Please model this.
Amino acid sequence: MKTYRKELYFETSRRRELINITAQVAAALTESGIREGLLLCNAMHITSSIFINDDESGLHRDIETWLESLAPEKPHSRYHHNGYEDNADAHLKRTIMGREVVVAVTGGKLDFGTWEQIFYGEFDGKRRKKVLIKIVGE
Model:
């Protein structure tokens, strides 16, 4: 059994962004040399997320609208957490969207469904954050 670990870093220019990171994750898989196994990709910060979905701009706007309806950024006073930082909504959005994805590796490739892509979801941006890729297999 072989393992491989890689870190990716993101610093967005906006507070909230959805970034397709499929190519970067696939490149890490190629670097690993692992042909069969599992790939874990997770956000190492509590206000960002990793998730799988379709790379379609209308869907991305729908996700943003849906998240904002569930956990609106403002008014900041609506949240008990807000004080030092006004980012309680970002913590809640991360909880909804999840921390990580696990993808099967088959024949040295990410074993996806037709439209599946991996995304980094940033909900409290404008600072550097880390994503971990861990691959286990042969």
Summary: The chain has a mean pLDDT of 97. Residues 12 and 126 are 5 Å apart (CA to CA). The radius of gyration is 16 Å.
